[in-house]
């Protein structure tokens, strides 16, 4: 008996060990569901405790938003304080709605199984690694909001699309699936203090860019660095604006590239832009260290004045906050490839918000969109994240960074061409990244760059 | 009497079977769930066109395999994979055997210390190794260039990971460095299993260290040697993804692309999960073929002690 008992116990323990290791395997993929902030919770509770008539009173004429409402949002450089604040206020306004947050830095991977199984959240903020809105549209995961977005009004009673800097992206045939929430611009960054100290002129166009690069090089500093590991930085911050300038300031070329149109990668505008890049390369303006390094490494070298200029996005100041040396002052120019007297070109990037096609509570999702797309919340976004929300708001008195304020001035200036939001599909983006690095390393010619892209575009058609 | 004799025997056999099943079944279930099922699932997926995100998959037969043949990146990736296999096998085995023999046969006092030092890279996470070596290779701030600059007039600014000719070679030192310790331990263990009387007899007969190594050590550790080589080959073909992901992302312009990373890039960055699965099948086939060929090449008569 004793022997048997012992055997059983050992067997049980072995089984337990196996189960434990299994549990360990499953744990990693678990979805993290953040609890609503304590503040929200208490208001929700007290509200439900109140008699029903009173709740109705507080809601007034607003349409009733009830039921479960699940939102998925990526938490990265912008943090989650804005989201927590918005969801808290949304809960106060609609006490009957039960909010579920699925958020975190790995949320895209964690939620993927649910999207595949057809059980997605109601609303999704598309940002961060593993997310791609073009692919989500292709995979038929997002709701067609073309009709709704035209007549929707935000909670201030203003038309939803009226204050937007970038309108909802057109996915062909006038169809909208996403609304840009974050708006920013690619461009060239430099240290204002360093330029002032050395007496260098901030480039206004291609000629002055070449002239100042020559001066910088003579002073023993590399004029230009970029992250070779992520070549889309130099594509976004240098090449794309060149395409527009050389295309007679017509940004349609970028939309054509997005649509994989024949000849959109092999034409005069592209050839002339690549010629300029080759000119920079042959004059030795690119820091040889660029190849193979990450964006962080390239930004560190830029902060340490090993390099004078860097193509980047508006987030860079916030991203490098902890490492900025004393006296360093970020300066921003949207483009450098325009002819003297030509218009400045701003190449935008956006992060979008979208309703799932299989949302269980689309009304709540729509109500939340109407709730956040206001001038007031845009200012809060700028203050809490240091970046720009896609709503034209007066930021001068806000806590937004100087770079963001400068960028806002460029966007409002009629002499600036703000290109439409566009995004190449992942295959084309990869090909463009590889080809651009190869061009900068002299392993291919501009002609070969264009041929490679045309071939990839043909394959995507 | 017969009945009495049989009964406990039957009970014994049943219990014995249960006992064996108790060991085999859990392993078999785990093996099926985590190895057999993903393998078959990958094979199944390779016949579909699936982005990895949509709810529906389209059956396209051998479409992915046709694309695989036309893909210009694949030949380069295979070449790079075998570049790593070739140099890793040679360098790791060379160093591991050298260290193992020196530590055991030269009777060093600090044997324990050296063993720990050489094994150390194996306990560091691969991610740390990748980041560490990225720092070493950094063109402006890295240790390697600063060190080399000590001997030159002009400061060295070689871009180890960014240069299309150097990048692949630069991936070797971290891979080799991280691999030596484990195989060294394997070889040490088998050397320690050789009776010292053999060496004593050999040295009495006038055999030097080199002769002892080639005539006694190597033949007697050959089985471990073979296992180590095949293990390096398999782990390299399946696992070179990690070092590439950490250090170059396959760049510049696919010059350090390996099949493992290309699978990841296609499956998760370019949203062709089923094509990624097809690359996985290719890796499987290559691994099997290579292992079979090596088994044949390395076959020798087993020497009994």
TrEMBL record, chain A:
Residues 28-65 are annotated as: Disordered. Residues 30-43 have a biased composition (Low complexity). It comes from the Bacteria. Keywords: Signal, Transport. It is found in: Cell envelope. This is Sugar ABC transporter sugar-binding protein. Belongs to the bacterial solute-binding protein 1 family. One of its GO terms (cellular component) is cell envelope. Residues 1-23 form the signal peptide. The lineage of its organism: Bacteria, Bacillati, Bacillota, Bacilli, Bacillales. The keyword Signal applies. The keyword Signal applies. Residues 47-59 have a biased composition (Basic and acidic residues). PANTHER family: ARABINOSE-BINDING PROTEIN-RELATED (PTHR43649), SN-GLYCEROL-3-PHOSPHATE-BINDING PERIPLASMIC PROTEIN UGPB (PTHR43649:SF31). Gene3D superfamilies: Periplasmic binding protein-like II.
TrEMBL record, chain B:
It holds the Pfam family BPD_transp_1. One of its GO terms (biological process) is transmembrane transport. It is found in: Cell membrane. Keywords: Cell membrane, Membrane, Transmembrane, Transmembrane helix, Transport. One of its GO terms (cellular component) is plasma membrane. It is a multi-pass membrane protein. The chain crosses the membrane at residues 20-40, 82-101, 113-136, 176-194, 229-248, 273-294. Its main location: membrane. It comes from the Bacteria. Belongs to the binding-protein-dependent transport system permease family. This is ABC transporter permease.
């Amino acid at each position: 008996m004793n022997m048997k008992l012992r055997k059983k116990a050992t067997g049980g323990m072995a089984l337990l060990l196996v189960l434990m290791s299994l549990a360990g395997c499953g744990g990693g993929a678990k979805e993290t569901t953040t609890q609503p902030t304590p503040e929200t919770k208490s208001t929700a509770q007290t509200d439900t405790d109140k008699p029903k008539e009173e709740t109705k009173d507080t809601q007034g004429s607003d349409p009733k938003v009830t039921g479960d409402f699940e939102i998925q949002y990526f938490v990265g450089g912008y943090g989650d304080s804005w989201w927590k604040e918005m969801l808290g206020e949304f809960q106060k306004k609609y006490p009957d709605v039960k909010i579920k947050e699925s958020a975190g830095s790995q949320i895209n991977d964690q939620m993927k199984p649910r999207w595949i199984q057809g059980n997605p959240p109601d609303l999704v903020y598309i940002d961060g690694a593993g997310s791609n809105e073009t692919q989500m549209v292709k995979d038929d995961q997002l709701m067609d909001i073309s009709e709704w977005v035209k007549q929707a009004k935000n909670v201030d009673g203003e038309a939803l699309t009226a204050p937007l800097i970038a309108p909802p992206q057109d996915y062909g045939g006038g169809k909208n699936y996403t609304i840009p929430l974050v708006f920013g611009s690619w461009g060239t960054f430099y240290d204002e203090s360093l330029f002032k100290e050395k007496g260098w002129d901030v480039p206004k166009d291609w000629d002055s860019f070449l002239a100042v690069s020559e001066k910088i090089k003579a002073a023993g500093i590399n004029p230009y660095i970029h992250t070779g590991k992520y070549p889309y930085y130099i594509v976004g911050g240098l090449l794309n604006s060149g395409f527009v300038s050389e295309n007679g300031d017509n940004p349609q070329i970028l939309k054509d590239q997005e649509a994989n149109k024949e000849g959109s990668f092999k034409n005069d505008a592209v050839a002339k832009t690549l010629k300029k890049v080759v000119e920079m390369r042959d004059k030795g303006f690119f820091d040889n260290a660029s190849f193979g390094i990450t964006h962080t490494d390239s930004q560190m070298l830029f902060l340490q004045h090993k390099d004078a200029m860097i193509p980047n996005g508006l987030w860079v100041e916030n991203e490098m906050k902890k490492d900025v040396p004393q006296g360093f002052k970020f300066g921003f120019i949207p483009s450098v490839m325009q002819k003297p007297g030509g218009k400045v070109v701003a190449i935008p990037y956006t992060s979008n918000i979208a309703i799932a096609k299989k949302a269980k509570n689309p009304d709540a999702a729509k109500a939340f969109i109407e709730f956040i797309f206001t001038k007031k919340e845009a200012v809060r976004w700028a203050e809490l994240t240091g970046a720009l929300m896609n709503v034209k708001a007066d930021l001068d008195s806000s806590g937004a960074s100087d770079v963001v304020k400068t960028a806002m001035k460029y966007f409002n200036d009629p002499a600036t061409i703000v290109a439409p939001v566009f995004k190449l599909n992942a295959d084309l983006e990869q090909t463009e990244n590889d080809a651009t690095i190869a061009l900068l390393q002299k392993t291919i010619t501009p002609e070969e760059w264009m041929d490679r892209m045309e071939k990839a575009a043909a394959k995507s058609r | 009497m017969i009945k009495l004799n049989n009964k406990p025997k039957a009970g014994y056999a049943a219990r014995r079977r249960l006992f064996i099943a108790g060991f085999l079944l859990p392993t078999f279930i785990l093996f099926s769930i985590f190895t057999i099922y993903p393998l078959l699932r990958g094979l199944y997926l390779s016949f579909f066109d699936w982005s990895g995100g949509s709810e529906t998959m389209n059956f396209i037969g051998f479409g992915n395999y046709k694309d695989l043949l036309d893909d210009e990146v694949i030949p380069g990736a295979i070449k790079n994979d075998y570049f790593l296999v070739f140099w890793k096998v040679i360098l790791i085995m060379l160093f591991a055997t050298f260290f193992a023999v020196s530590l055991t046969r030269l009777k060093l006092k600090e044997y324990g210390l050296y063993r720990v030092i050489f094994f150390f890279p194996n306990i560091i996470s691969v991610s740390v190794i990748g980041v560490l070596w990225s720092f070493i290779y950094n063109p402006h701030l890295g240790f390697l260039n600063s060190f080399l600059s000590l001997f030159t007039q002009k400061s060295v600014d070689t871009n180890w990971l960014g240069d299309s000719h150097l990048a692949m070679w630069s991936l070797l030192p971290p891979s080799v460095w991280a691999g030596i310790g484990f195989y060294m331990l394997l070889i040490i263990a088998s050397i320690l299993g050789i009776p010292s009387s053999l060496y004593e007899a050999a040295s009495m007969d006038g055999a030097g260290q080199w002769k002892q190594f080639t005539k006694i050590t190597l033949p007697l550790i050959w089985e471990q040697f073979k296992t180590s080589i095949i293990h390096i080959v398999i782990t390299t073909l399946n696992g070179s993804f990690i070092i590439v992901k950490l250090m170059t992302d396959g760049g510049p312009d696919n010059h350090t692309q390996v099949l493992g990373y290309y699978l990841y890039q296609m499956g998760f960055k370019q949203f062709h999960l089923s094509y990624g699965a097809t690359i996985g099948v290719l890796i499987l086939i290559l691994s099997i073929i290579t292992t079979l060929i090596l088994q044949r090449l390395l076959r020798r008569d087993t020497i009994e002690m």
